[in-house]
Amino acid sequence: MDTKAPAGKLGVLIPGLGAVSTTFIAGVDAIINGHSAPIGSLTQMGTIRLGKRTDNNNPKIKEFVPLADLGDLVFGAWDIFEDDGFQAATKAAVLSPQDLEKARTALEAVKPMKAVFDQEYVKNLDGDYKKSAPNKMLLAEMLMEDIKTFRKTNNTTREVMVWCASTEVYFEPSDIHSSLEKFEAALRDNDDRIAPSMIYAYAALKSGVPFFNGAPNLTVDIPAIQELAMETGLPIAGKDFKTGQTLIKTILAPGLKSRMLGVDGWFSTNILGNRDGEVLDDPMSFKTKEVSKKGALDYILQPDTYPDLYKDLYHKVRINYYPPRGDAKEGWDNIDIFGWMGYKMQIKVDFLCRDSILAAPIVLDLVLFADLALRHNMRGIQEWLSFYFKSPMVAPELYPEHDIFIQLTKLKNTLRWMMGEELITHVGHEYYDSYE
Ligand SMILES: NC(=O)c1ccc[n+]([C@@H]2O[C@H](COP(=O)([O-])OP(=O)(O)OC[C@H]3O[C@@H](n4cnc5c(N)ncnc54)[C@H](O)[C@@H]3O)[C@@H](O)[C@H]2O)c1
Fold this sequence. Notes:
alpha/beta, Rossmann fold, Dihydrodipicolinate Reductase, domain 2, 2 domains, seven-stranded parallel beta sheet, four-stranded mixed beta sheet, 16 helices, 11 strands, binds nicotinamide-adenine-dinucleotide
């Protein structure tokens, strides 16, 4: 199947004009203007091997697959605060005043639209720049109207939506989420079990726009939205950008397992002081994040398959809101491992990271890959993008793949498959056939 060429402007629609999204927008502007290299972005810096190792054919990913040009991105956002992108970025205080000044025009151009928001879902936050309507279906229609206006004003040929808004409280799917018909009835009934993020996802898909979820909210992990994605032929993906501690975890854990080293315990704690940290200070938003963060180790280490190594693994995750640190988070991991004859060892990791600096290139890659998937008519869950998520979405009968190296292989092989190239298995027997 051919991929349609990326002609014209690509709209990037973002619920949540906060630390991550403004850092992303400022960074794209810096790349376009030659102030910075696209560090951390696989689509921009990564290469992909084609054919045999002896062919020496390693083009850049962006030269191999037809991705949108960064100059063709146009940004739109919703927030509960009326601040434009520059004011929001200044408050988020991720970037230096000098870097913000360079991106001023690009950031100021992003004036948020009124949000769909309900404080029941984000306890530690409220603002007054919100839509109101008698029921949730009407709110969804207002979002669809926003998308239509954005499309017209900016003359975009296609759009993608990436959720960069706050983490909503934890809740489990219920009957109203089980089919599109029930979900739509619940929207009209103003049912409490429909979170704002689900209303955005519904509005996006109804408008022909793929929806990717950067937070750990339930959002598109429900049959109703998945049914809508299949019906509309649109890609969806999630959830929760894989940055910081979980990134390190999914780099280290596959390595320990590959050498059959045991793990007794893994304690992860961190301090962060941005607005995300403040939202996560509420136990119910933290619970959403905790569930998302805790899944990875079990899936990577497979305690049922390797009981001698991992059956007693004690995994604890803590997030502590500590304002002085702002976005400059510090994450500690204490890993209790054991080796030959059961002898115990410890690994300590102290990662002084910057959350939004790690998240911004992920947003860029996801925007470009969402658009690529759209133009390649790939609908429903995009498991090949697991690489970017803490809690990757998969078909109901599958377990998620968390090992970052398998995820990368899968991503690159999907690109090869899309372009009709031979897949790379890494067997490499052909180099040695002459010895047979
Ligand atoms: N930075 C990271 O490394 C990282 C990693 C994984 C996930 N995330 C998630 O990404 C999201 C954004 O993180 P951030 O650091 O930018 O947070 P932030 O608090 O700086 O920004 C979130 C913005 O969303 C707005 N918002 C909240 N609810 C909204 C709604 N219903 N509609 C529109 N706007 C709404 C808030 O007012 C705020 O401006 C969070 O959910 C966070 O958990 C971040």
